[in-house]
Write a structure and sequence with these properties.
alpha/beta, Rossmann fold, 2 domains, 8-stranded mixed sheet, 6-stranded mixed sheet
């Protein structure tokens, strides 16, 4: 199948995809070791389940322990797996080399497909190439929008983080912000770095970059607090994840700062904070949709030979702004863990 016969711009001609996930019960077991987490799901038989032969798909992410953002991605993946008669094996590790080892584990298990994040693409390149050489289809999601084609992945599902960051910067301009601090919770993670770079590119005010240890929330709180105490001219805090936004609310209070807060990514707590005015807005990349489409796309490819975007364009799931003007429409879905 020649994917090169459909050239188009990834940045300006995104593919729009819609997926309707059935409300299916998925059972599984989980284990963890040395920062790695693994889960097998899709074993429950539910109404509406595909009658196609059983498949095994590995989903391998760079999720850090305790980051609830990934719960939403897994929920979407599990819904697709249940619908498609897929045995889903989920594993994660924030270390690039360790994540690459998880890909090798999936190859050794002779899975039928792999869905992977490319937060640290250089570390993943060799393992992804081995999967492709073994004839295993690989799709990307969430991180790696600038690298998925280079590494030969079939498809990509997520948002263009540079575009999202640039939109965020323009939003800061529109509210009259003058000085923001962009808080990165994992140095060197390409998606996070791209967000702050995008903010800095379009924001007409001053942008400071603040690195924090995202696996240690008390440290995150203290580091943001110290930054705000050090520089009272900061009038907006930009965080790159909903849990970190909730911590930044505490930091702003601890510092006695008048800074306002906006964030990338969404969860139920962030929705409540937008309602109360503690968060001005959030950019939602729809992680549930990313997880769902990543698994469903492998089923479609194996079953029908289908793939989205002609191998050229990513399927963009964001960015979408959520603020007081539309938060009520999002709230019911956030409560269910699908936004």
């Amino acid at each position: 199948m020649d994917r090169s016969s459909h050239p188009r711009s990834r940045r300006f001609a995104p593919v729009v995809a819609a997926a309707a996930a059935a409300a299916l019960l998925v059972t599984g077991c989980s284990s963890s070791s040395g920062g790695k987490q693994a889960e097998e799901s899709g074993s429950a038989v539910s109404a509406g389940k595909a009658s196609t032969p059983r498949m095994t798909v590995a989903m391998i992410t760079h999720a850090a322990p305790g980051d609830t953002f990934w719960d939403t991605i897994r929920k979407g993946a599990e819904a697709a797996a249940a619908k498609d008669n897929v045995k889903l094996i989920y594993s994660s590790d924030p270390s690039g080399p360790n994540q690459a080892s998880l890909v090798q584990n999936a190859i050794d298990q002779k899975v039928d497909g792999i869905a992977v994040t490319l937060a640290k693409p250089d570390a993943m390149k060799a393992a992804v190439a081995k999967a492709e050489q073994a004839g295993i289809p690989v799709v990307g999601f969430n991180s790696g929008v600038d690298d998925w084609k280079k590494q030969g992945l079939l498809e990509y599902f997520g948002q263009d983080e540079s575009i999202a960051g640039e939109a965020f910067g323009r939003k800061l301009n529109s509210v009259g912000a003058k000085h923001t601090v962009c808080v990165i919770m994992e140095q060197g993670q390409v998606a996070l770095e791209a967000r702050c770079a995008g903010v800095k590119k379009t924001f007409s005010g001053k942008t400071d970059i603040l690195y924090v240890n995202g696996t240690d929330m008390p440290s995150v709180r203290a580091t943001i607090t110290a930054k705000l105490k050090q520089d009272s001219s900061i009038d907006y805090v930009t965080t790159l994840g909903a849990p970190f936004a909730m911590t930044a609310i505490q930091s702003i209070a601890d510092a006695g700062s008048k800074a306002k807060l906006a964030t990338f990514d969404l969860n139920k707590d962030a929705v409540g904070a937008i309602k109360s005015g503690k968060i001005q807005w959030a950019i939602d990349q729809q992680p549930y949709l990313q997880g769902y489409l990543a698994i469903d796309s492998l089923w479609l490819y194996k079953t029908n030979g289908n793939y989205s975007g002609g191998g050229e364009a990513p399927v963009l799931t964001g960015p979408a702004f959520v603020d007081k003007s539309n938060v009520e429409k999002v709230a019911e879905f956030a409560a269910k863990g699908t936004r």
